[in-house]
């Protein structure tokens, strides 16, 4: 049983990983499918994403109006090869549970059919932490967006990042997180986020970049 209860207006760090730490995103197609789900699963309506994609022959990020009202607000996200992180705010009663059930069930069905497998893909019930302080909430923007550094530097959380320029450059090229959106780069995936539902910690990309730079410089001391 989950130890915390979700409540409207509260913020949460949601995350989960593949069962037995297995890779859950095998290629570009898998990442795009999950990103599409972050948008289309965030609704009280039911969408058959596979049917929709067969018609358009691409993942659909343009259904924001058709999707209907969202059930959660998403402030940040990051997809890693074997896990994902989300920063969300519950905006309707039971919204997080509805959203996550649709998100994980839908992607598991897609992944299993594609790879001719059966059974659970993710490690049980998704994990959730209540973000109950302003300091913790702002910290999560850093933690979530810095996660991809682990792909090129597995010990980054326990030690100083030696090649800071390489780390920053890698983040700037990693398209499977909301890092690009806080760089104020134009792309359709920006529809996933609801920045207006979160505190305005960064008035522009320069302020966001300064925060990222500061945490990269002190990663081993602070994030370890």
State the main characteristics.
224 residues, alpha+beta, 42% helix, 13% strand, globular
How would you explain this protein's 3D organization?
The chain is an alpha+beta fold and 224 residues long. Helix content is 42%, strand content 13%. It has ten helices and four strands. A four-stranded antiparallel β-sheet has the order 2-3-1-4. β2 and β3 (83-90) form a beta hairpin. α1 (28-40) runs antiparallel to α4 (95-115). The longest helix is centred in the middle third of the chain and has 21 residues, at 95-115. The radius of gyration is 17 Å and the shape is globular. The model is unreliable at 53-58 (pLDDT under 50).
Secondary structure topology:
Blueprint: E1 11-17, H1 28-40, H2 49-56, H3 64-67, E2 72-80, E3 83-90, H4 95-115, E4 127-131, H5 134-146, H6 149-152, H7 164-172, H8 179-182, H9 205-217, H10 219-222
Antiparallel strand pairs: 1-3, 1-4, 2-3
Helix pairs in contact: 1-4
Mind telling me the C-alpha Rg?
A: 17 Å
Strand order of the largest sheet: 2-3-1-4
How much is the average pLDDT?
88
Strand content: 5-15%
What is the count of DSSP helices, taking H or I runs of 4+ residues? 10
Percent of residues in helices? 40-55%
Largest sheet: 4 strands, antiparallel
- Which regions are unreliable across 5 or more consecutive residues at pLDDT < 50? 53-58
Give the structural class. alpha+beta
């Amino acid at each position: 049983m989950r130890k915390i209860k979700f409540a409207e207006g509260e913020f949460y760090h949601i995350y989960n990983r593949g069962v037995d730490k297995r890779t859950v995103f095998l290629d570009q197609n898998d990442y795009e499918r999950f990103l599409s789900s972050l948008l289309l699963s965030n609704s009280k309506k039911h969408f058959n994403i596979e049917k929709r994609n067969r018609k358009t022959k691409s993942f659909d990020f343009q259904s924001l109006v058709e999707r209907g009202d969202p059930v959660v607000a998403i402030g940040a996200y990051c997809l890693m090869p074997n896990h994902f992180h989300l920063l969300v705010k519950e905006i309707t009663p039971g919204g997080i549970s509805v959203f996550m059930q649709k998100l994980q069930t839908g992607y598991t069905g897609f992944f299993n059919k594609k790879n001719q497998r059966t059974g659970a893909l993710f490690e049980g019930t998704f994990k959730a932490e209540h973000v109950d302080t302003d300091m913790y909430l702002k910290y999560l923007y850093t933690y979530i967006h810095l996660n991809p550094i682990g792909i090129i530097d597995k010990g980054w959380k326990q030690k100083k990042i030696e090649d800071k320029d390489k780390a920053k450059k890698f983040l700037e090229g990693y398209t499977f997180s909301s890092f690009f959106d806080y760089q104020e780069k134009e792309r359709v995936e920006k529809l996933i986020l609801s920045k207006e539902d979160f505190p305005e910690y960064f008035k522009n990309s320069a302020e966001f970049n300064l925060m990222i730079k500061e945490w990269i410089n002190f990663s081993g001391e602070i994030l370890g």
